[in-house]
Amino acid sequence: MTPSIIPEKCLWNEIDQVGIVVPEQERSDHDHTDFDVVIIGAGYTGLWTAYYLHLNDPSLKIALLEKNTVGYGASGRNGGWCSTIMPMSLDSISKQNGRTQAIAMQNAMFATLKEIRDRTTTLGIDCDFVQGGSIEVLRTENQSDRAKSRVQHLREYGFGENFYKLLDRDQTLDIIEASQTLGGLLDTQSAVLHPKKLCVGLANVVRAQGTKIFENTDVLAYTSGQVETLRRTFKASTVLRTTEAFSVNFSQAKRSVIPLYSMMVATEPLSADVWSEIGLESRPSFNDGRNMIIYGQRTADHRLAFGGRGAPYHFGSKISTDSDFNQGVAQRLRTTLVDLFSVLERTEFTHHWGGPLAAPRDWTFNISYNPATGLGSAGGYVGDGVATSNLAGRTLADLVCDKSTDITRLPSVNHSSKKWEIEPLRFVAVNSLTKLAMLADWREERTGRPARLINAVIDKISGG
Ligand SMILES: Cc1cc2nc3c(=O)[nH]c(=O)nc-3n(C[C@H](O)[C@H](O)[C@H](O)COP(=O)(O)OP(=O)(O)OC[C@H]3O[C@@H](n4cnc5c(N)ncnc54)[C@H](O)[C@@H]3O)c2cc1C
Fold this sequence. Notes:
- With 464 residues, the protein is α/β, with parallel strands linked by helices.
- It has helices spanning 44-56, 90-97, 99-122, 141-156, 169-175, 195-209, 272-278, 327-340, 385-400, 425-447, 452-462, and strands spanning 34-40, 62-65, 81-82, 134-138, 164-167, 183-187, 191-192, 212-214, 219-223, 226-229, 233-241, 257-267, 285-288, 294-298, 304-308, 349-360, 366-370, 375-379.
- Among the domains are: 11-79 and 196-256 and 362-409, FAD/NAD(P)-binding domain; 422-464.
- It is built from 11 helices and 18 strands.
- Strands 1, 2, 8, 9, 10, 11, 17 and 18 form an 8-stranded mixed beta sheet that branches. Strands 5-6-4-13 form a 4-stranded mixed beta sheet, with helices on both faces.
- A hairpin with a 4-residue loop joins strand 17 and strand 18 (375-379).
- Helix 1 (44-56) runs parallel beside helix 9.
- The longest helix is centred in the N-terminal third of the chain and has 24 residues, at 99-122.
- It is globular.
- The structure holds flavin-adenine dinucleotide (FAD).
- Residues 40-46, 65-68, 72-75, 77-81, 83, 218-219, 242-246, 262, 264, 295, 307, 354-357, 379, 381, 383-387, 389 line the site of flavin-adenine dinucleotide.
């Protein structure tokens, strides 16, 4: 039987249905163009940066310029994993900056989860935030072995049971009733949220602080002191770029990141009977230990939202709305989810969407600011930007205000990654990575042995 097409629309855009009023678009035709700070891009990074800049110095006149509408990018479309995961490994930080800095960086992520929880609460941002941890289901011996050695490694860095716990089969099944469960790895600190509600809530907060948000304002180019849009020139002593995957369209950032597409599907709201066969009662985010990245959450309105990589990279780092949907990947996601929870066999899948995220060559996000030029930027979170963008926004605000704090001394500050290769090398290498991850999973499933050689090649290409 041919699988039915999954409707192409983003679940998170249906926030009107759950009672949130989308703020009115700021009219972009008023003539005020002189600001202290202009931020390009109104996703989480731009919004958090504006928020903390105002806290640091309420006299600052701040403008946020957004090509589309608030949360149009990855911030309004992601899987809602507000997690303590960083895109780069502790070992890679340690190699470049030392063990103490690696530990400081991970601790900053734990503190960031608390910061987001506390801020959204005190600011009254209702974004369905729940800190129920994150469970990785281990479904083969290879996945279990990898998880054990990862936990051992985390222990060597000093992160104990209060952060990461290995669970046996029964303990795991108490949380999530996935097929073929052998055990689990619980990250106790992570959370889930409704991505778009966070964008809208933050936009309301920064508007109330006095920041001007200019939507439908396409920035064509920027230099020190000025920003060119289709209609006018904005002047500001500080110009910050927070455009993540879309940064490739600016001359300053062409090969600094590549846009990778991540895709999602969502089910209809599930009945209490179905949930009794799946679990996830305290709403932990979930995945399993396969090589290809997958991620899921039980939403506040009782659906499963589930995503994964596997969409192709487009030649020349092209970003286009045509690539926001991919029925092939959507069907694979449906099959994977039904394989995890057979009770979903007859469930309707009501939404499919996707979007680009930004990957630097060494998978290390960066926050930079040059006081001499007044230019700065933050991003490169790969698929882990929901929480890291808060850390980045706070840090960027401190750098701009010349505040020396614990976070401005973290290794991501002014970190520079090697540029990506020129085409066609980039196209071949990046698309091979995706295929190799799939091949590694297929091999492990068939042979029951770890696909060490394939994983070593993946590490070599990705610089991991
Ligand atoms: C499908 C998907 C699932 C994901 N799941 C997760 C997850 O579960 N957990 C997690 O941690 N991370 C996840 N991510 C990554 C995460 O969403 C991003 O890292 C994060 O949202 C980046 O925020 P940002 O503000 O830096 O960028 P964005 O949200 O991409 O915002 C950039 C903004 O800049 C604007 N812009 C671009 N060009 C211009 C221009 N020329 N002029 C003006 N404005 C411009 C865009 O319209 C956009 O609104 C996912 C990403 C995707 C795509």
